[in-house]
Amino acid sequence: MACSATAQIIQPLSINSARSVDNSDACAKILNPSSFLVSTPRINKKLFSVNKSISPFARRSATVFAVSSDVVKEKKLKSNSSLSNLLITKEEGLELYEDMYLGRAFEDMCAQMYYRGKMFGFVHLYNGQEAVSTGFIKLLKKEDCVVSTYRDHVHSLSKGVPAREVMGELFGKTTGCCRGQGGSMHMFSKEHNVLGGFAFIGEGIPVATGAAFTSKYKREVLKEDCDEVTLAFFGDGTCNNGQFFECLNMAALWKLPIVFVVENNLWAIGMSHLRATSDPQIWKKGPAFGMPGVHVDGMDVLKVREVAKEAIGRARRGEGPTLVECETYRFRGHSLADPDELRDPAEKAHYATRDPITALKKYMAENKLAAEAELKVIEKKIDELVEDAVEFADKSPVPARSQLLENVFADPRGFGIGPDGKYRCEDPKFTQGTAHV
Amino acid sequence: MLRIMRNKLDAPVFTSPFLKPAGLALRSYSSSAKQMTVREALNSALDEEMSADHNVFLMGEEVGEYQGAYKVSKGLLQKFGPERVVDTPITEAGFTGIGVGAAFYGLRPVVEFMTFNFAMQAIDHIINSAAKTNYMSAGNINVPIVFRGPNGAAAGVGAQHSQCYAAWYGSCPGLKVLIPYSSEDARGLLKAAIRDPDPVVFLENELLYGEAFPVSAEVLDSRFCIPIGKAKIEREGKHVTITAFSKMVGFSLKAAETLAKDGIDAEVINLRSIRPLDRPTINASVRKTNRLVTVEEGFPQHGVGAEICASIVEDSFGYLDSPVERIAGADVPMPYAANLERMALPQVEDIISLENILKDVDENQGAPTSNEDQTPMMPLGVESNLGDAFHETETWQLNGASGLQVWEEVFW
């Protein structure tokens, strides 16, 4: 599995030196920073040098580090360099900001609507994790696929599904992207290649692997010019599930163009990742199957974007899958029904200081990429967009009674396709009962 | 799993079947018969569909280099190459999900399970990702996938390899469930399944793979396919309708031949499609014969026979001269010992003896029997000439005494 392409990765922030290990006190003994270095000696063929971040391990204990100051400090160092050394252009920065802000505003509106009774059932919000969605999905083409879990509103929005359609779906109206038949957990869009929205954790991973299989099949068997990539998003809890490992194996075995993105927010409802997992460092599970495993700070959209560029590029070039562990955090509970009592408020406060939107805002301000006023314009635009989506969904009609029995099958009457290639029920002789069976 | 036939009080006069000439309904074949085994039929169907559409590919354990665990995919690897005939690791959940994902995104996979027992590891994908997606996405994303493999009991393979899943998959909206018997069925239904835009569960039978059936020229044509959701009347008859699927069709046909010698003309329906179930055909048949026996290999509770019985009761209750009888496998996990296994599955003799009991009832018209055994929900001792060993499982009355009273009120 020798790969000749050497990955060029821009190290945005050489944080290794800046972040002192001593601060990690007890944690350092358990997980020393070197464990986060290049993923594995075996894969360390310089094909993928890893962008690392050493996270403050507020996990083991309640000791919390205010790291945001570090993060911002690093970015401040950067601002002295010329503009050409920056990671993003102004347009890209504004795009990223807009997308993250849309995710946040939308989810906040969902919470409001839920408590007002307009939305119902299970609603899982993505607040705090926007950097992962934006960082990855904004690098995709329209033909690339995204497969997600039940926490899929923001993935759909980032991929391009209009906010109106997502809100309509959440309200259960017929104007939703799935005509109100899917709901919060099942966002499907053929046009934007969002392949769901799955309630079972781990269910989306094989489906994503299958979409990647299709890309490869199209390229190799059907000889089409196809370099579509699939992203599979899932959480830390899923990484203990059998299907995850089955798919890591097959994706690496067949070198499928897929990126497995782990949104490690440390909590699976009320189950801490550390209580559930024998080895909590998920990125290590990649090399065990022969693919690079990368760990990145998921609260920083720029770092995520850099890693994503590399991973998606690998997949597009046909070099195979990558496992990316994004360390992130959800500011709200698991779902809107979750009282969220088990998480330490200090931990929540700590991560709140690392809010990805504020961080990007600061970065852009310090590097003179965008003025405060420009960002305010974007925020206003997004607020209006979300309000409009709510109004639209509110005014939309509920599904008609006839919709209940529609769409069970693609085949209208269930009689299958005849020898002439058309649906049998369309053949008048068949429906009259005179066709020879 | 036999039930006592309750004698009807003041039953309407019924022409004794003895007065009618016993005749065998002839099976008609289109033209001179070429013999083809079910295995060859499946292989040729796969071959032709994969040649016709390059989006079709086969995936499963041992389908490639091993030429198929039951040699159904023999020669396909050599013809189509390893990208289209994919040998998978032993990861049912994983590769079934991969098949579903490929179907979401535009290909037409055929996922083979070594037996449908193993498909239980992947049943989440069959039901939750495949069956429900067209509905959940409101028609956005359809799933043109076929899940196929042997189903039901083989010979001496034990409890974990012998379950029949027709009833389980048949209860799920969003799935089409097909279950062939002969080579013609196998070829036509598999071709229809592969061309179909929806998820199809294709339940084969290991013991039928080697059985040869005559096939006409029409069946051998590459465009041949059978409609989904239509049952086939394998043998016409007048006195009793027997519905069956898969191996039980063969048993029912044999039983019908024996019964014909006694003057009982049985109509045998090969269901072919469990979902959608061909209720019109079954109902029409029962309205003609007035009696129904359902035969299946699977467990009795919530089985296919239960659904057929309910359907007939709902739609053709007035036409029934006697309650619907179900013949099903024994309500136990499949034992290993050969004699026990034989007892746990319906055999030809069971079907015959039931018809004889039906015949006995007709002969005793007008003689009221005591109703002491009609307490609802009591296990019945079953009378039969097969001996006690077969009837160790308890049988439950479907209709209690109250049911009978209602019937009387309505009809007399």
UniProtKB/TrEMBL annotation, chain A:
Q: Where is the signal peptide, in residue numbers?
A: none
Coiled-coil annotation reads 368-395
Please name the GO terms of the biological process aspect recorded for this protein, alphabetically.
pyruvate decarboxylation to acetyl-CoA
Enumerate the UniProt keywords alphabetically: Coiled coil, Oxidoreductase, Pyruvate, Thiamine pyrophosphate
Q: Where is the Dehydrogenase E1 component domain?
A: 99-399
- Entry-linked SUPFAM superfamilies: Thiamin diphosphate-binding fold (THDP-binding)
- Highest taxon, organism lineage: Eukaryota
Q: Which reaction does it catalyse?
A: N(6)-[(R)-lipoyl]-L-lysyl-[protein] + pyruvate + H(+) = N(6)-[(R)-S(8)-acetyldihydrolipoyl]-L-lysyl-[protein] + CO2
Any GO MF annotation of the entry? pyruvate dehydrogenase (acetyl-transferring) activity
* UniProt-listed Enzyme Commission number(s): 1.2.4.1
Per its Swiss-Prot or TrEMBL entry, what cofactor is needed? thiamine diphosphate
Q: Does the keyword Transport apply?
A: no
Q: Where are the transmembrane segments?
A: none
What assembly does the database describe for this protein? Tetramer of 2 alpha and 2 beta subunits.
Question: Any idea what job this protein has?
Answer: The pyruvate dehydrogenase complex catalyzes the overall conversion of pyruvate to acetyl-CoA and CO(2). It contains multiple copies of three enzymatic components: pyruvate dehydrogenase (E1), dihydrolipoamide acetyltransferase (E2) and lipoamide dehydrogenase (E3).
PANTHER family linked to this entry: PYRUVATE DEHYDROGENASE E1 COMPONENT SUBUNIT ALPHA, PYRUVATE DEHYDROGENASE E1 COMPONENT, ALPHA SUBUNIT BACTERIAL AND ORGANELLAR
Name recorded for this polypeptide: Pyruvate dehydrogenase E1 component subunit alpha
Q: Which organism is it from?
A: Fraxinus pennsylvanica
UniProtKB/TrEMBL annotation, chain B:
Q: Name one Pfam family in it.
A: Transketolase_C
- Which GO MF term does the entry hold, naming one? metal ion binding
- Quick one: a GO cellular component term? mitochondrial matrix
Write out the GO biological process terms.
pyruvate decarboxylation to acetyl-CoA
Keyword list (alphabetical) reads: Metal-binding, Mitochondrion, Oxidoreductase, Potassium, Pyruvate, Thiamine pyrophosphate, Transit peptide
The identity of this protein, by name, is Pyruvate dehydrogenase E1 component subunit beta
EC number, as in UniProt:
1.2.4.1
Q: How does it assemble?
A: Tetramer of 2 alpha and 2 beta subunits.
Q: Where in the cell is it found?
A: Mitochondrion matrix
